[in-house]
Amino acid sequence: MGKVVMYASVSVDGYIADENDQPGPLFDWLTGGDVPLDESGVLTVSQTSYDYTRPYWDGIGATIAGRHVFDMTDGWDGTPPGGVDHVVVVTHRPKPEGWDPEAPFHFVDGVEAAVAKARELAGDRVVEVAAGDVGGQVLAAGLVDEVRMDVVPVVFGSGKRFFGSIDAQHLLEDPDEVVQGNRVLHLRYRMRR
């Protein structure tokens, strides 16, 4: 079974979006290099960021996101982002009317059900959990194996927190990787068990 990884780009002060749900400069590192990160040609990063990010992206079998993100992105028009095979959406509401039943999106109620479904879909590949409220709930449930963050040199002061509304202490191991890219610091931590 693949590991469960909580992931996002984040400000130095721990936010994944500002008060208006906007990422601001958090994704600038994804367009500020000269190495294409995917086939679109839109995402271009430094060679260092490519060497760190591309193998991780290639290992993702399923992504878990909340309904809020799904709605904000219009469900990525039915195509999972970053070439991921499946997206599991945590929601208390049914899938949108007219949603393509062939699109590789799965709507489940609750984070435990989301992780179980994503693990089933991903097999031995990585289950990625979007940071924020849903990611924080998965962390609080003890289901996260690893935390990855791309720390961008900006201070938001307020907004959407990387760990959501976590209200208890959770220990991580020392960083397994610390990689400096252009305008980003890539960090990877294992959860302490």
UniProtKB/TrEMBL annotation:
GO terms for biological process: riboflavin biosynthetic process. GO terms for molecular function: 5-amino-6-(5-phosphoribosylamino)uracil reductase activity. Residues 3-170 form the Bacterial bifunctional deaminase-reductase C-terminal domain. It holds the Pfam family RibD_C. Gene3D superfamilies: Dihydrofolate Reductase, subunit A (3.40.430.10). It comes from the Bacteria. Coiled coil: none annotated. This is Dihydrofolate reductase.
